Amino acid sequence: xxxxxxxxxxxxxxxxxxxxxxxxxxxxxxxxxxTVLGRAALPxxxxxxxxxxxxxxxxxxxxxxxxRYDPTRRRLDNGDYDYNADNDLDNDIGCIPTLSLxxxxxxxxxxxxxxxxxxxxxxxxxxxxxxxxxxKYTRFVELSNEAARLNGFEDAGDFWRSDYETDDFEDIIDxxxxxxxxxxxxxxxxxxxxxxxxxxxTIVPPRGPIPAHLLGNMWAQTWTHILDLTVPYPxxxxxxxxNTLRRQGYSPFDMFRLSESFFISLGLEPMPSTFWQKSLxxxxxxxxxxxxxxxxxxxxxxxxxxxxxxxxxxxxxxTAHHEMGHIQYDLQYRNQPFxxxxxxxxxxxxxxxxxxxxxxxxxxxxxxxxxxxNVDESFENDINFLFSMAxxxxxxxxxxxxxxxxxWEVFSGEISESQYNSRWWDLRVNYQGxxxxxxxDEDDFDPGAKFHIPANVPYVRYFVSxxxxxxxxxxxxxxxxxxxxxxxCNIYRSAEAGRLLxxxxxxxxxxxxxxxxxxxxxxxxxxxxAGPILEYFEPLMSxxxxxxxxxxxxxxxxxxxxxxxxxxNASVRPFSAVIAxxxxxxxxxxxxxxxxxxxxxxxxxxxxxWLRSDSSKAVQKDGMCLREPWNVLRNxxxxxxxxxxxxxx
Length: 649
Ligand code: KAF
Ligand code: ZN
Hints:
26 helices, binds ligand KAF, binds zinc ion, mainly alpha
C-alpha cells in the first residue's frame, strides 16, 4: 500500500510533463514507464481489497496439505477408487493432512509408479489447493481488469502483454509454437508409447491424450522424472545426477556454491555476502512458508536473496542456477537508473540462469565437476542426453503457452466464470495433449492449483524464455569458440561468452528488448527465433521420427461409444449431451474433462454424460460410435448392455 501511494505520487509528478515531446529517447522511455500506474490506479478501498485478495490466495495455496494415500480405502466394484464415498478426502476421521507440495507431493509425483496413488495425489492436491480459490479468483479478475482499464488498457491481459512492447505479441508466440509443435508431437507420441508399455493401453489411450498424472510432475509441465521409463538407450550412465549429489553429501548451500562457481568462471559477479547470510535455502520446519522458489532484489545495491525449499536433486540444482540467474541480472543492471533495473522483458529475466544450466547439465561438464563418470561421446549417449533435455525443455512449451492463453481469455471475458475449468481442460487437451485422469467439473478450479495463478505471476515469460535461452546459448557458444553440435557446447570458463552476456544483461530495461537481442547476436537478428532450439534438438528429432514410424502422431480425444444423444436449449448455451461409456474410468474421466460447465452427478453408476456445445464437431446417432474426434472403441459390445441414460432431456 505504501509503495502504491509512493508510486501514485511519482505518477502525479511525472504526468505533469509533456514528456512525449522530450528530445532524449532514454528520458522519454523512463517517462513511458513511470506514467503507467498499474494497480495503484485503483481507488484506495479497491486497491486494499485486491492486495488482500492476492495475499489470501497465495497463503491459501502455500498452506495446502493433503492426506497420505490409503490403498485400503473403499473401492468400487471395478476396482476404481471410490472418491465419492463419505467425502473421505475432506473429513476422514483420523486423517490429518500433513503432506505439502514441497517436498512431499513433488517427490511422490516424481517417483511413484502406482497409477492409483498418483491419481489420488493428483486429485487431492487440486481439492486442497485449487478448489477453495475459485470464488476469490473471480473477484480478483474483476479488480485486475478495473485497474488495467484505469491505465488505458483493454483488460489485465492487455496490460500484461504490454511488457513485451510489441503489438503482435500473440502472433509471434503463435508462430513460434507452430514451429515447435512437430517436435513436441514426436516427443509426445514416443512418451505415450513408453507409458503404454508401463501402464497398459486401458490407462493410456494409444491415439489419445496422455493422462496427466503419469508424467512425473503435478502439472505434467516437465517430464524429466519419467526418464527411467522412457530413456532411449537403457543401461548407460544416467544423465540424472541426483543420486551422485546425495552420495557425495551435497547440501543446499553446496548446490548454490556450485552454481555460483559457474557464474564466476564466466567472469560474472559472485553473490554478495548478504546473499549467503540472508537467503532462505532450506524449508523451515516451524512455520508455513511460500516454498515456490524466488529471487529478490532489495534495490539497495547490497541485499539480494533467494528463497527456495531446496531438495538434493538434479532438478533443484538446475533451479538453483535459474534463481541465481535472476540475482546475476539484478547485479548486472544495478548501476542503471532505478526505472531501468529490470529485465529487457520478463522472459530475459527467466532465461539467464537457464542459459548457464544448458552448459552445466552437459555430460562433459558434469564429468568435469565430478558428478558423472565415463561418458563417451557416442551417438547413444548423445540421444540419451538430448532426450532428457527434451523432457524438460520441449515438454514444457505448450504448458508455458497455455497458462496465459487461459488467463488472457479470462481477463478479456472470452472465458466466463462458468467455464473456468472446462476451458482450462480444453487448452490442456488441445495444446499439451494431456487429459484429466478423472472427472473434473465447474466446482473444481484446476488452474488455481498452479502457483502462478494464485500468486498472480504471468507465465508466458517462461515459454518465451525457453526459446530465447537457446538463442543466448547459440550466441555465447559462438563467442566461446565452440565447434560441433550445439547440444555439446559448454561455455564454462569462457571469458568471451561472459563478456557478451554481461553486455546484454547490463542494459537492463534501458533499451527495448529487440536491441538487446541485436547486441547478443552482433546485429544478426533482433527477433525471437525458434532456429537455435530446433538446431539443438535436430539429432533427437530425426531419432524420434525414426522411432515413431508406425506411431500415431498427435491425439484424438478419447475413445467412446455413444449410447444416446439428447439435446437441450434450456441452459445458458445450447448443448448436446452424448451418452457414452468408456472402457476405463480414467478414459471416461478425461473425456469429461472437456465438458461444458454442467455438473455431472451419479457418474460412477450411470454411463457418462458428455456435453458439447452445438457449434462443435458433429454428434452422431444413438448407439453409434463417434468418429472424429473420437474413434471406435475396440470392444463396443461391452457397453451395449448398459441402458442409455436419458433423464437429462
Ligand atoms: C522454469 C524453469 C524450469 C521449469 C519450469 C519453469 C517455470 C516456472 C515453474 O512453473 O516452476 N518456474 C518458476 O516459477 C521459477 C520461479 C521464479 O524464479 O520464476 C520466480 C517466480 C516468482 C515467485 C514469487 C514472486 C514472483 C515470481 N521469479 C522470480 O523470483 C523473479 C522474477 C523476475 C525477476 C526476479 C525474480
Ligand atoms: Zn524465475
